Amino acid sequence: ILSYGAKPDGKTDSTKALTAVWAKACASVKPVTILVPKGRFLLRSIVFDGAKCKRKSVTVRIQGTLVAPSDYRVIGGKNYWIFFQHLDGLSVYGGVLDAQGTSLWSCKKSGKSCPSGATSIGFQNSINVLVSGLTSLNSQMFHVVINGCRNVKLDGVKVSADGNSPNTDGIHVQSSSTVSILNSKISTGDDCVSIGPGTNGLWIENVACGPGHGISIGSLGKESVEAGVQNVTVKTATFTGTENGVRIKSWARPSNGFAKNIRFQHCVMNNVQNPIVIDQNYCPGNENCPNQVSGVKISDVTFLDIHGTSATEVGVKFDCSSKKPCTGIRIQDVKLTYRNKPAIADCSHAGGSEAGFQRPNSCL
Known about the structure:
Layout lengths: L8 E5 L1 H13 L5 E4 L3 E3 L3 E4 L8 E5 L2 E3 L5 H4 L3 E6 L2 E6 L2 E3 L3 H9 L8 E6 L2 E6 L2 E3 L6 E4 L2 E6 L2 E3 L10 E4 L2 E11 L5 E3 L4 E10 L5 E6 L8 E12 L3 E8 L6 E15 L1 E9 L14 E14 L3 E6 L6 E13 L2 E2 L1 E5 L1 E6 L9
Parallel strand pairs: 1-3, 2-5, 3-6, 4-7, 5-8, 6-9, 7-10, 8-11, 9-12, 10-13, 11-14, 12-15, 13-16, 14-17, 15-17, 16-18, 17-19, 18-20, 19-21, 20-22, 21-23, 22-24, 23-25, 24-26, 25-27, 26-29, 27-30
Antiparallel strand pairs: 27-28
């Protein structure tokens, strides 16, 4: 990108240079690599659209740091800071995305009128995507979004934002199939990973979460007609000081949404407020849902080998829908303690089986 006028000083706007580089890459019939060398490159909101490209595959190697403008208003009204779409065979290696979101968080906390903020990097309507070794710092809103994609692998991704930063989900997946999130460390102010409607075939392994709100399926059932979530595995995850551990949540209102064939296994909880949660009475601010029940059907969910400490006495909470009770919930080898005593379980409208579950009270 240097040969297209980008300067690694963190002050010169490199957006035009990157736009020109993309146009050149897009017109190439040969395999092409875009190189962002060492240094800090100032970048405004940019879209890399492969719809009209001769080749739909491209490699982006980031050795330096892409930095957003310090004035949050420049990109704050956009959906995305960096956005890739209509690609097949996109690889993004290394690098740091510094969205400088702290001033927008302060604005939001002050109660002033602020833009909602941009997601740092998004991938949409693409297949065969690899993101390896990327670091996202201080996003305005979400850090990484995968939407409408197939066959996506995120490996060695690092996400970092303050534990009090608002709406800074680490990795959000929706309307996508065959996605894996591996060997990643996520510290942020909202869900470490959030899993939205239409996700089918998500594998999360060797992920450290904290601070943050845990790994959450949902919120589901916001819409009355909604794609379900199925075939999700979370394996070998560590949660430290998080608000939740593993969670499924749905709005308390009618919907045809569902979550099925979900597996949480080999998880360690370190001082987690709500280690295991199914919440089907999600109704923030008690608006649009009071006195209603969730229509989302949750079935075939396994919690296997989950150990550690709860920061509250309730280690397992299943608050399922009275209209569509949870079925096929399996608990095996779950041992959670609160102040050196077994944490308790609090369950309603949940059915299934348990083995090796540390009493004092049975749940299913």
